[in-house]
């Protein structure tokens, strides 16, 4: 018999992996950009943009399957870990939408301080990874705050 809930859980976990895993590739790419000529910088920046796109689309699937799991699962929307997950997820969505694209856009400006921008990109990546790990903790541990 086909179990829809188990399939949703599988899709949810897989999308979580794709929403956080590729971010760990960005850090070594940033380190390579620091020492590269401008031609290779563009290639590495294209790779970073693809990674961000993968993370973004995996996040869409993550949210969709998460909503479906709450709708069809045993937890009500007012459960404390669900509420906290939605709050952190909202912060993460705003951060991803503004953080990465803004920093990457600045990199292409003519007189940009590339070392400063790379430092910000690294910081942005680690903050986003931290937020995603917090979301993973909330989903796995399901702590009770109230």
TrEMBL record:
The keyword ATP-binding does not apply. It comes from the Bacteria. Coiled coil: none annotated. Pfam families: DUF2269. Keywords: Membrane, Transmembrane, Transmembrane helix. InterPro entries: DUF2269_transmembrane (IPR018729). The chain crosses the membrane at residues 6-30, 50-75, 81-100, 121-140. This is DUF2269 domain-containing protein.
């Amino acid at each position: 018999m086909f179990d829809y809930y188990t399939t949703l859980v599988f899709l949810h976990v897989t999308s979580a992996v794709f929403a956080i895993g590729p971010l760990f590739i960005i850090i070594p790419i940033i380190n390579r950009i620091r020492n590269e000529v401008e031609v290779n910088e563009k290639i590495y920046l294209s790779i970073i943009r693809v990674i961000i796109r993968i993370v973004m689309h995996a996040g869409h699937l993550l949210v969709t399957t998460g909503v479906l799991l709450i709708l069809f699962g045993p937890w009500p929307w007012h459960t404390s870990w669900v509420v906290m997950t939605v709050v952190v997820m909202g912060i993460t969505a705003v951060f991803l939408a503004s953080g990465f694209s803004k920093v990457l856009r600045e990199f292409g400006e003519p007189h940009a301080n590339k070392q400063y921008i790379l430092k910000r990109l690294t910081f942005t990546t680690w903050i986003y990874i931290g937020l995603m790990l917090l979301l993973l903790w909330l989903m796995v541990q399901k702590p009770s705050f109230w």
